[in-house]
Design goal:
single chain, 419 residues, alpha+beta, four-stranded antiparallel sheet, 12 helices
Length: 419
């Protein structure tokens, strides 16, 4: 405690050069007698500090004294200030007092010459609050609980023992021992919600040397050979290590890499559009062909993703849409007006009281002229569908997207439509 107080006194003296004992005593919440003893201790340690009587006096530090020259070179000072400014700019520290103290200690001006921002465009205070809480948990060795969403949109509740914050690939990650999974895991901070510090402390554990994100349980990996168009060069260099990239004579880039074989990989490959060709394995070419056909069907037929409405299609390939062309609607696809299930097969439809097929509802929601769950609310049906989505590999997409779609669509269904 005394050493910390001595440093504080020295910092104040270097910043202001003269401070009264009363001011120091109030600042450090000790008596003036203690301040004078601390001044004696500093003097005994070789620090040229002295007390000056009279108006304008006080405890002073000799003008010629510069602590940084005795400890660090100018280049070392610059490196320290650079590193600290970078950490502060990322949101890694919530206060700037440490930077201000070192700037004064090193007799530097213009300490705001650097700004490094690792957060995404549009990120707000919530992301910084998450960082601050995770950092606090790691520093105080407190367990941390939160809701987490995987890259596939799977939701889970976790309690972890934070070990290390890592910035990698443009994102902040937490390396932690997961009490839920009884093993080390890596969590992306942007996918954390409802964070809370738990009581107690974490036992000492040595985290893995390298940050490795394990593949989801049951998800195999795949070795890919990819060819990218020259126009995708900058993005390819952002995503892949130079050792993975080979430039061909025509300017195309050949990449050999491995990824978990999941929905994220499909989205990643599709994001390159016509700038990418998958060379191997062959079945991934077939997967992309099927996805491309789905896209083509959406835009050529006018079928909306929600299948709630059909957009008009223009006859006459290559002709300008503004001209007077024949417009025809696509035949609407039928869906259960309770849960949204497609009614593509006769056996999928429910039954009326006379045993005939229902026009509006599926067999799971409607039997013999009545709802199978008459007291269910729209929220209950959405929750059921989201659970089905998670347990079956997210066929409706990531949870957030699926829920958003359902909440906009379900109020238009017959059972939930407001009178």
């Amino acid at each position: 405690m005394k050493n910390s107080r001595l440093f504080e006194i020295l910092y104040l003296l270097m910043e202001k050069r003269a401070v009264t004992a009363k001011e120091l005593a109030q600042r450090l919440e000790v008596s003036e007698r203690t301040i004078y003893r601390d001044v004696d201790a500093l003097s005994a340690a070789g620090i040229p500090v002295f007390a000056q009587q009279g108006q304008g006096g006080g405890i002073r530090l000799m003008e010629q004294f510069v602590l940084d020259k005795a400890l660090l070179s100018q280049a070392q000072q610059d490196e320290i200030l650079f590193a600290l400014q970078a950490v502060l700019s990322t949101g890694g520290a919530s206060e700037k007092e440490t930077l201000a103290q070192l700037t004064a200690l090193f007799h530097r001006e213009g300490g705001d010459w650097l700004e490094v921002d690792f957060t995404d465009w549009g990120s707000g205070s919530a992301e910084r609050e998450t960082f601050t809480l995770v950092k606090k948990a790691a520093l105080t060795r407190r367990p941390l609980s939160f809701t987490y969403y995987s890259s596939a949109g799977m939701k889970s509740c976790r309690t972890v023992e934070p070990a290390r914050l890592v910035f990698k690939g443009g994102c902040w990650y937490l390396s932690a021992y997961c009490r839920t999974r009884q093993d080390w895991r890596v969590f992306r901070l942007s996918r954390m919600e409802s964070l809370a510090l738990e009581e107690g402390t974490c036992p000492p554990r040595r985290p893995p040397e390298r940050l490795e994100a394990p593949s989801p349980v049951g998800t195999p990996g795949v070795d890919l050979r990819l060819r990218f168009a020259p126009s995708a060069a900058w993005r390819v260099q952002d995503y892949f290590h130079p050792r993975q990239i080979a430039r061909e004579p025509d300017g195309c880039l050949l990449v050999e890499c491995s990824f978990p074989e999941d929905q994220w990989l499909l989205s990643f490959l599709l994001s390159f559009g016509s700038q990418l060709e998958v060379l191997s394995p062959g079945y991934w070419r077939d997967i992309l062909i099927r996805e491309a056909k789905k896209l083509l069907e959406i835009y050529e037929t006018g079928q909306a993703l929600s299948s709630l409405e059909a957009y008009p299609c223009i006859k006459g390939e290559g002709e300008h849409p503004a001209e007077n062309k024949e417009v025809f609607p696509m035949e609407e696809r039928k869906f259960c007006q309770c849960c949204g299930m497609p009614l593509d097969k006769p056996e999928d439809v429910g039954t009326e009281s006379d045993g005939g097929p229902s026009v509006d509802y599926c067999r799971y929601c409607y039997q013999n002229g009545a709802f199978t769950a008459p007291d269910a609310s729209m929220e209950d049906i959405i929750a059921f569908n989201l659970k089905f989505n998670e347990e079956n590999g997210c066929p409706f997409g990531p949870r957030e997207e699926a829920e958003k779609m359902m909440r906009s669509w379900f109020p238009t269904l017959k059972r939930w439509r407001k009178a």
